[in-house]
Design goal:
The protein is built from 4 helices and 2 strands. With about 110 residues, the protein is mainly alpha-helical. Strands 1-2 form a two-stranded antiparallel ribbon. The radius of gyration is 16 Å and the shape is flat.
């Protein structure tokens, strides 16, 4: 596995995903990237003020554990199916949810100057 500095939240999500998904060892790095990207996406939507203390931000981000987990799992499982909404082959049909729907519970941080 690559050497990457992880915060405790990303590390916890990643470790649970390793158990839940049980990927091949060759996919560990891909799962780590998907977990980090999910964290970054939620953080981006939260839109924290520049002067917010890192500890307060990490505490706030912890409430989005499930969103980060679900996004990372979704992204990991969608590798190779990017851009597809529906697939039908051999009599089996699958429709994928839109990734954007997974952000419904993530509300941008409200602040005023």
């Amino acid at each position: 596995m690559s050497v990457v500095a992880l915060n405790d939240l990303v590390q916890a999500v990643y470790e649970e995903l390793l158990i839940d998904i049980a990927p091949k060892e060759a996919d560990y790095d891909a799962l780590l990237i998907k977990t980090n990207n999910a964290y970054r996406d939620v953080k981006h939507i939260r839109n924290y003020p520049a002067d917010m203390e890192a500890e307060a931000m990490l505490t706030d981000m912890s409430q989005y554990y499930k969103v980060i987990y679900d996004l990372a799992m979704y992204d990991f499982n969608m590798r190779g199916a990017e851009g597809q909404q529906r697939i039908a082959e051999n009599g089996e049909e699958r429709t994928f949810i839109k990734r954007e729907t997974m952000f419904r519970s993530v509300i941008p941080f409200a602040y005023y100057a």
